[in-house]
Q: What sequence folds into this?
């Protein structure tokens, strides 16, 4: 049975196979979680990001790239480039859905059993938190049954307001799922 867990805390301290990083298009570090991941992961991960930037020009919005985790306690970092919120008319919801889907595809390709997701695009990118949570949970849970490798998904909220939104959404669907949801 697949497992989904909701946690309020530090995503960089979880012992999972892959941490999803809210990255910018350059993959060279930014603010928020991206800054923290780059700082804690160290030079090995940073050098992998530099190489991706040189080779591919970074990563397009809605897509994801994989690197080693460096000094963090997981095997991989999946750098996910979510959309900036402008006014909702620039395909932002679809791009956010795409980034979650592309992360799952990358995770499957590297045979990840456990993965932790942050609240992609809800920080400095300004995506509305309720809509972002609905897209994140909807995209991940609708794909989870079809994924062969991923067994445990963690939604990790740093901020209590995001945690409350995720909790309410997960409680409303908890009885309708063929998976174990832990809040």
A:
């Amino acid at each position: 049975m697949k497992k989904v867990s909701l946690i309020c805390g530090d995503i960089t301290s979880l012992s999972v196979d892959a941490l999803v990083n809210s990255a910018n298009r350059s993959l060279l570090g930014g603010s928020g979680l991206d800054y923290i991941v780059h700082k804690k992961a160290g030079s090995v991960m940073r050098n992998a990001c530099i190489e991706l930037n040189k080779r591919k020009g970074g990563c397009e919005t809605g897509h994801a790239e994989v690197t080693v985790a460096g000094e963090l306690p997981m095997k991989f970092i999946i750098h996910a480039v979510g959309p900036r919120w402008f006014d909702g008319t620039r395909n932002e919801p679809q791009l956010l859905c795409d980034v979650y889907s592309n992360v799952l595809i990358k995770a499957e390709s590297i045979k990840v059993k456990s993965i932790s997701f942050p609240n992609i695009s809800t920080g400095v990118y300004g995506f509305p938190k309720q809509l972002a949570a609905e897209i994140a949970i909807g995209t991940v849970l609708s794909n989870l049954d079809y994924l062969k490798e991923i067994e445990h998904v963690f939604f990790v909220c740093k901020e209590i307001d995001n945690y409350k939104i995720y909790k309410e959404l997960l409680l409303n669907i908890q009885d309708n799922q063929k998976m174990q949801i832990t809040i």
Remarks:
- The chain has a mean pLDDT of 95.
- The chain has five helices and seven strands.
- The radius of gyration is 15 Å.
